[in-house]
Amino acid sequence: MRRLLLSGHLKFQRSSHLSLSLLRFFHVQSAISVQTDALSQFPCSSDQWSVGDPLDDFISILKNPAKTLPVHSYVSSLHCVALKAGFTENVQVGTGILNLYSKCSALDHVRKMFDELSQRNILTWTILLSACVLRGEHELGLSLFKCMLVDGVLPNCFTLATAFKCCAKNSSLRVGKSIHGWIFRNDIENDIILQNSIINFYAKHDAFGYARKVFELMPERDAVSWNSIIGVHVQLGDMTAAMDLFRASPSKDVSSWNTFINGQMENKFDQTALELLHLMVKIGPLFDQYTFSIALALSAKLALLDLGKQIHCKLLRLGFENDAFVKNSMINMYSKCGEVETSLIIFSNRVQSPNLSQLSPSFMGKLGNTISWSTLIAGYVHKGFTEEALALFSRMLNEGAPADAFTLTSIAAACADAGIFQQGRQIHACIEKLGHGVDVFLASAVIDMYAKCGSLDDARKVFEGMECTNIVFWTSMIASYALYGEGREAIDVFQMLLEKRIMPNKISFVVILSACSHAGLVEEGYKYFKMMQKDHGIVPTIEHFNCMVDLLGRQGLLDEAKNFICEHNLRHHSLVWKTLISACRVHGDFEAAIWASEKLVEIEPHEAGSYVLLSNIYATKRDWAKVSRTDLVLHDLEEEQREVILQHHSEKLAIAYGIISTPCGSPLRIMKNLRVCGDCHEAIKYVTQATDREIVLRDAYRFHHFKHGICTCRDYW
DNA sequence: TTAGGGTTAG
Question: How many alpha carbons fall within 13 Å on the CB side of residue A385?
Fold first, then answer.
């Protein structure tokens, strides 16, 4: 249709009115390449005009709001037309083009044009500041705002709102406060938009009292005001107040619902978010693209595939399937809910930009090309499809998409899962080269990757090379030590964390308790279990309780472990019984093992695993003395047979192959999917002594780091 | 004013 119109247009190119109408049509349709083609046919010399005033028509095109943000190539073509036709002397044309450059984030062009302007007024200054905000240049925006005041130009509400946007995005609480004071003192007209931006500015700087005050003093409020103040309480985590405000808001529009539902998710009230979403369908406004993104994110988080599919149908009916955000949320939802193939299909049909290099960064962001890659890769890693994720990553690089910090984090996690040290190291080099080394998410993932690939030293180097107060970053290092049974080192790092007044979370405590357990540090374990509740107000969950049962059980304090289960009313948790049974077996307490297994069968009468455990214990009883020596190998074999089989255990074979195929003295890293047996563990100790090599063995649960005849697990695992 | 992708344990 557009092509047809364009070819028709070429026949009548001498008619300026027809040219302009077509141009406007293409602009509204936002067909980028066609617009530019149409512009190239635009009659430029005055003798080509048949009727009417071309200047007026041109100005009306500049002011005509397009459905989407203007594209840079289209605006520069318009600019060329204006130059050729001699329109640029006109103030409205100059301002119009400046505004379009600003909207497509072409800050360089805006600054150049602004510098060349003969007359600067409040409008041109405001356009310049908006361009800075759109481009994320908030510091520059503020310094230009100050230049404007020095020039004696009095700001209006729009300019001030833009200045507050700059202050909200950087560390300018002081500057923003002084502008607010100036508005008060000079009795400047203060409209709703400006007041909303002031609320938002205070909220971004955690100055919630001020935000609330501005809201309360507003003579009139719109949906944005209400949403902003609801957002303040969401940020504070005060969801009761947020709920009251949401109910009280007289202007509940679709964005109010979005803000509130999203706030519930941010505060981990996913069930409430789900209920509100149902309520919105019943009594609320129609969904917009934000609602769809939020709803899909919620389905992904709760792994509710059916709900996700219903939302998919709904968005198809309402025509939101081409929105880049929504599409990306769909890719995420399908992969997190286990339908990786569907997410791949949606990914393959995603919006492709005509020419990425010509577009501004914000426009590229809106098209979502890089983001879709990282979402898809994250989905594959999440589902454990490590090889596929790595293959997608190299395809992504081949297709010229940049490796951003998000993608690299997922790839580092993939290397950790697969325990592939060499690839992990290459990824780390790539991260440093691209300048992503300072990203805290990425650094945490790299620590975890090195630890899980068998190099605790490299993990430690990354940790020590960065000053950081992020709790996940610290927990990653503590978990790495715990994984290797280095309980004392784990405790040292945990103490450093407390000294720096970084707040440990519930996972940090699971990690430190498990470190104490693996290192047999009972007293310290009790200390942290109490500290967690008393000093940090963290209510212990089954994971914490289980660590304590494990800690006591491993040390042979079986009665204490039993009492702990009873005292804390953990009888209905199968996990603690399994832990206790394992400890009873290690310490050869058959009676206690039977007792615990019977408890387990009571709780899980339909679980085959419970009966297998129980029957194993009965089987063990037949020859307990023998089993206590060989319990980790095979129960019913003759001694000679056993010796032959033990020689072929995969870790021994791997080590033998490693020794003959690598340089003397280099470390060996071995991975296996089962727990190491006692015989292999003993043998490896001798091998490290005889060959003077370090051997790192990753089994199903943890690492064994052998050096000079000693293992970090101290023979306890 | 509100939206999508990343890290730690078990």
Answer: 17
